[in-house]
Amino acid sequence: MSxxxxxxxxxxxxxxxxASAAKTCEAEASNDVVSALREEMRSEFANMQNLMTSxxxxxxxxxxxxxxxxxxxxxxxxxxRSNFNERLDAFDARLLALEIARxxxxxxxxxxxxxxxxxxxxxxxxxxEQEYLLNDVVITGFPxxxxxxxxxxxxxxxxxxxxxxxxxxxxxxxxxxxxRRAPDDSSAPVRARRIVVRFARRITRDEYLQxxxxxxxxxxxxxxxxxAPARIYVNERLTKFNGQVFAKAREECRVHMxxxxxxxxxxxxxxxxxxxxxxxxxxxxxxxxxxxxxxV
Length: 296
What we know:
Layout: H1 3-103, H2 111-131, E1 136-140, H3 150-160, E2 170-175, E3 195-199, H4 202-214, E4 233-236, H5 240-255, E5 260-264, E6 267-271, E7 278-281, H6 284-291
Antiparallel strand pairs: 1-3, 1-4, 2-3, 5-6, 6-7
Protein name: Zinc finger DNA binding protein
InterPro entries: AH/BAR_dom_sf (IPR027267), FP_C (IPR057251)
Organism: Operophtera brumata (Winter moth)
């Protein structure tokens, strides 16, 4: 065999060895890449798992806090209801005593004092009832539609006023009273019931009221609510008695040309003009004292 043939055979053998080594290196490099990718994926998965665990724990803590606040609120309402019932029993007892005194001429001298005591008890009961409503507001102006969602309306109004509400901020939202029936004249519209919103905290209610005062003049058109355009009003929720007194106080201010009549924390105030002292109105007797016996 010639020398050139031997060299050719040796070269082929060398090439085979080089190719085999290259394949080995390539396989090792591939294994390294796969291992690195696997380790990176494990690390990412561990990070995601830790993040999800942390978020779940945070959500669980928030829910626990919320339920605890609701339990405290329920306990407070239960205690308030019990106190209210006790005062109502006392009121019934005093009322019975007054009726007996009126029927007994011998006790006629005590009648006036009992009547005053009765007035005082009524005022106290009304004030206690008003305290139960201090987390509430009433919204008027939204047309009442079948299948509506009052919670959505209250939240939509809040967003429009620049106030974002969390579901935990609201205890209940509902139309007040029984549905109104259409009048005999079917062409006449049914007056929409006002919406009552009860907040979990007083501070949230105050923020809602303040935002409504800042954005006074909002209409249903701006909220994209179907129906004829109407102004939206947000006010404190008053007891039935205070609502009647407030309406009479406004009428007295109109007749006597007093400029200011407002409510704050469930209390009603009037003022003749800017810079003059204000007066609190608790009942019609106060209106008579403030405006004179000629009050309407």
